[in-house]
Design goal:
CATH architecture of the largest domain in chain A: Orthogonal Bundle
CATH superfamily of chain B: MetI-like
Structural class of chain B: mainly alpha
Structural class of chain A: mainly alpha
Strand content of chain A: under 5%
Strand content of chain B: under 5%
CATH architecture of chain B: Orthogonal Bundle
CATH topology of chain B: MetI-like fold
CATH class of the largest domain in chain A: Mainly Alpha
Radius of gyration of chain A: 26 Å
CATH class of chain B: Mainly Alpha
Largest sheet of chain B: 2 strands, antiparallel
Number of helices of chain A: 15
Largest sheet of chain A: none
Oligomer: heterodimer
Number of domains of chain B: 1
Number of strands of chain A: 0
Mean pLDDT of chain B: 85
Distance between the termini of chain B: 47 Å
Radius of gyration of chain B: 24 Å
CATH superfamily of the largest domain in chain A: MetI-like
Low-confidence stretches of chain A: 1-19
Chain lengths: ~300, ~290
């Protein structure tokens, strides 16, 4: 009744039912949003709370609220366990995800530029191959890739992970879409008329205009690499080469067999492994939103 | 003029060289391997040699009951989980589209929290949530009188489906929401003047407009489901009797290759699965395109 005053009286006069319905639909909309938000956030909340508890607290207290605060003890245990292997895994993860993403940006932007702004024989085929390979299940390539890499000595090395991370057809396609929009052909022509070489044009003009596109490719690639599990699991044997995902999986698989219960280590480690990813994502929010939307529209 | 075209192609060379190395070569290698097998000579283990096996590996693959049970399992699972997840993602996107922009941004952020969690961490987290010893879910259901064992063979698909939905819903929502933003706003005003309800506008105008996004997310989801591996592998550590070594096709391939050292057979299975994935995507694309008015 009170909200009726805010509505336009002339229109609602004849449609009291419709007016009621729109008010109800607004309440339902908000209720739906709140439910979805709770579903999305509550499990992460549980993980954060659990990372502050010791074994006793995990077993006997309310999972959704804090008990005795053991967060810093847990962190120390995580980093001290097994001679600080967790730190090695973290460094490895940063190296694979960050290094792979950087290489991927260079290779993909160059290829996207070629596909977008030049017409050479085989360009159409090249583009078709890129789009066609989206549909190829990546996991199927992993096993033969391992066999191939072990023949030439790349298996069980950082390169065995970094090279596949660098070559990503989706990122090439994304880069091409960005070049289409961000690098005007007239500008390139003008630079050529002025006598600039192709290499110089690429590094001084194209890469500069492509800052947003490059950042998007970097971010999506970083997230994909950080989350990858199957490739490093197949490729890397020694635990000093593992990234965090494999390390946590290993701790979890072992948690009941070892002398001490590893549950708190797994939970705290899992929480810690989210942080770098969350930092990168929050810092680059602007880019990944536009990137994902762009990919969907074309 | 001719020099230009050559230099331009040069920028694509690093990628395509890498592509040959990491996509084409492994594919060819898998094909090659799938036509061979290991035969141990009469003198014992030391004299194993590779022999041409023709289509033997494929015949074996086509008759492998465990492998096909896995394929059927993930396909059935896909038929239930993907429509549910995309339906929820679509609902999320439509709800977001129905409120003021500032409110939408706030909620969109919380919807994307699962997307920021590494897949394996998400799986670990839910495994603990499901755990009767540590997780709050079993206790909570107990208080309303439901005994639920999330790792029992009856509930494990629900557990896994919920996990996958939780992980991927936000990303799919983002794609659909992005497509929704492109719908011309005048259409809604016109419909409102004609007396259409918000629900009616959503179903009759917005949903048809995001068809393309739904087909895209649908195809990506089918391919992802066929490759299901990480989550069942983790569940296996808790429920090894329910989640067997051949629970999903990729698990069969992984265990054949690295547990039983049957690389050649695993390669043949990979080729078969690639064909299935291609076929499923093609069929889905054809079906959704034909249904278009």
């Amino acid at each position: 009744m009170t909200t009726a005053a805010n509505e336009r009286p002339a229109k609602t006069e004849g449609l009291p039912v419709g007016h009621d319905r729109s008010r109800r639909s607004r309440v339902l909309t908000l209720a739906g949003l709140v439910l979805f938000a709770l579903y999305s956030v509550a499990p992460v909340w549980w993980l954060i709370v659990s990372a502050t508890k010791d074994q006793q607290g995990l077993l006997y207290s309310n999972g959704l609220w804090f008990e005795d605060f053991h967060f810093f003890d847990n962190i120390r245990t995580v980093f001290e366990y097994d001679d600080g292997i967790f730190l090695t895994w973290t460094v490895n993860s940063l190296l694979y995800a960050g290094g792979g993403a950087l290489l991927c940006v260079l290779v993909s932007v160059a290829a996207g530029y070629a596909l977008s702004r030049f017409s050479f024989p085989g360009r159409k085929l090249g583009l078709g191959v890129v789009i066609g390979s989206f549909l190829l299940p990546q996991a199927l390539l992993t096993m033969p890739l391992y066999l191939l890499f072990s023949k030439i000595g790349l298996a069980d090395t950082a390169w065995g992970v970094l090279i596949p991370f660098t070559i990503n057809p989706f990122m090439v396609y994304l880069a091409k879409v960005y070049v289409d929009g961000a690098v005007p052909a007239e500008l390139l022509e003008a630079a050529r008329v002025d006598g600039a070489g192709e290499i110089r044009i690429f590094f001084q003009i194209v890469l500069r205009l492509m800052r947003t596109g490059a950042a998007t490719v970097f971010l999506l690639s970083f997230v994909g690499n950080w989350n990858n599990f199957f490739l490093p699991l197949t490729m890397l044997r020694g635990d000093d080469k593992w990234p965090l995902s494999i390390g946590l999986y290993f701790w979890n698989a072992q948690r009941t067999d070892s002398e001490i219960d590893l549950t708190t280590l797994v939970l705290t480690g899992a929480f810690l492994s989210i942080i770098p990813l969350a930092v990168v994502m929050l810092a680059m929010q602007r880019y990944w939103k536009s990137g994902v939307t762009l990919g969907s529209l074309k | 003029m001719r020099r230009h075209t050559f230099r331009g192609a040069g920028f694509a060379v690093p990628f395509y060289l890498g592509f040959l190395f990491t996509f084409v070569a492994p594919l060819c290698y898998a094909l090659y391997q799938s036509f061979y097998s290991i035969e141990s000579g009469g003198l014992g283990i030391g004299t194993q040699k590779e022999v041409f096996a023709g289509l033997d590996n494929f015949t074996r693959g086509f008759q492998d009951g465990d492998f096909w049970a896995g394929v059927v399992r993930v396909l059935l699972f896909a038929c239930v989980q993907i429509p549910l997840m995309l339906g929820l993602a679509l609902t999320m996107a439509l709800l977001l589209d129905g409120v003021a922009r500032r409110t939408a941004h706030r909620y969109r952020f919380s919807f994307l929290v699962p997307y920021m969690i590494p897949g394996i961490v998400a799986a670990l987290m839910w495994m603990y949530l499901y755990s009767p010893r540590l997780g709050p879910l079993t206790d909570a259901l107990e208080t309303v009188g439901i005994h639920a064992d999330f790792y029992s063979s009856g509930l494990i698909w629900f557990s896994m489906g919920n996990l996958l939905t939780w992980i991927h819903m936000g990303f799919n929502m983002l794609i659909i929401y992005g497509a929704l933003q492109a719908v011309p706003r005048e259409l809604f005003d016109a419909a409102r003047v004609d007396g259409a309800s918000e629900l009616r506008i959503a179903l009759s105008i917005k949903v048809p407009y995001v068809r393309g996004a739904l087909v895209l997310t649908g195809m990506l989801s089918i391919i992802a489901t066929l490759q299901l591996f990480n989550e069942p592998l983790l569940f296996r550590s808790t429920a090894p009797e329910t989640v067997t070594k051949s629970y999903t096709p990729i698990m069969t391939i992984y265990y054949q290759a690295f547990d039983s050292n049957n690389y050649h057979y695993a390669a043949a299975l990979s080729v078969i699965l690639a064909l299935i994935a291609g076929g499923a995507s093609f069929l889905f694309y054809k079906l959704t395109n034909r249904a278009q008015p």
